[in-house]
Write a structure and sequence with these properties.
Layout lengths: L5 E2 L4 H19 L5 H24 L4 E5 L4 E5 L4 E2 L2 E2 H17 L8 E2 L10 H7 L32 E8 L5 E6 L5 E5 L2 E6 L2 E7 L6 E2 L5 E4 L6 E4 L5 E3 L17 E2 L5 E3 L6 E2 L4 E8 L5 E5 L3 E5 L5 E6 L4 E6 L4 E6 L4 E5 L2 E6 L19 E3 L5 E6 L5 E6 L5 E6 L6 E7 L5 E7 L2 E8 L1
Antiparallel strand pairs: 1-4, 2-3, 4-5, 6-30, 7-33, 8-9, 9-10, 10-11, 12-13, 13-14, 14-15, 16-17, 17-18, 19-20, 20-21, 21-22, 23-24, 24-25, 25-26, 27-28, 28-29, 29-30, 31-32, 32-33
Helix pairs in contact: 1-2, 2-3
Length: about 450
Amino acid sequence: MFLIAYRGKGLWVLYSLFMGTIAAAGLLKLAPDTPTWLFALLAFLLPGILCVTMGVHARGQPARQVVNPPTGRESKQRPLHSLYWIRIEYWGALFLIFGTWVCTLKPHPGRMGGAGADDFAVGNNDTAKAEIRGLPSVDALPPVIPEAHGRAAVADVTGPRKPHVAWGVALPFSQSTDIRVIGGDGTVYLSSYDGVGAARDGKLIWAFHAPEPRVTMADDGRIWFPAPGGGGYFCLNRAGQGGMLPRSIIPPPDAGEAPLAGCSGDGRTMKVPGRREVALDYACTRPQAKLGPDGMAYVVTEAPDVRAFTPAGALAWKIATPCAAQRLLAGPGGRVLFACQDLSIHYIENGTLRWSKPGHGEIDEGDINKPSSSLVGLMDRNGTTYFVDRAADRSSHVRALSATGDMLWTLKTPTPGFTSYSIGFDGQGRLYLTGMRLMANQLVCISD
């Protein structure tokens, strides 16, 4: 049984801490772009002020005469409020000191362990935050930047073999940030629930406030995303020029969103936008339907099995699996990697199970028992899988697993509890990863 030792109004320490947390959570809900450090500061600053005020007030109260009956001696006593024998004002001082310390935290360089590891250099998040601004309304499209034409050609790239962290940059967004598209010039375009940004060569180029932008790129290198409520579109170039366009200007056909495979509500139908629906005799283990870079669609069912369908909707192959897949990753050349609830990893190539191996925390990003969680990973042209895991001790790693099942390299992330959101290649095979650590979003580039 957990006992709470307090005197007077000592429980106010716990009450005030609870009130501060509620106030901070309310602020974050009303203003989603509130910096995380401000949230943490408010959670401790308010309790600190309340506790110090109450403790100082108690010290100023007049003392009362108390007689000890056995001895008959008189003494003076003032009100005393404490929790676990620590005065309430001292608790307040501790809260204020801790809140101030959290306020001064900046992303720490750290170190990634493993083959070819290098310093995990990041930018200053406060500086990045100062650069975020609103988008203007404009009358015409921004100019095309010739060297920024097109998306990164990743179909034939191979990933790092002797990896090191080339650079890292802090991102100004308060919510999880994803890589949306990587340009042919290596510019990484990102979006969060509260903004959109671009980074290249270890620098944040620009960042704008925008609610939940669904970013796509046209062949000319300009990016597009719709305004809330169907109120038109935003268009920006690599330099951040552009803004909210008149409703008469719409994205070109080549700026459409990439199709995603999915399953119906009852799991009995697989859907890909622009293709006919495919009926399933067993329900798919949602959301385990994926579209490969070659246009093949893959789905995992409760049979259990993995099935591949051509763009025309014809069944290309079906293979029974030793367990129900909890993670699925589709790569080029008919390659599929999946993981099961026991963390075992399995690799299929064109309908043939090539290998299976027990896992030791690999692929366990998020919660493997939750069907809503997904694998943060991708494959290169050789079938090597690059992915992020989280082991039982909450340590995170970036790993490279060959097409033959050999672990090529492992980089340990700098701090426990690192949460990854997205991963991508550029045209030179450099690996980009977004995630959060020390209450700050990061974009990291891993290269040879």
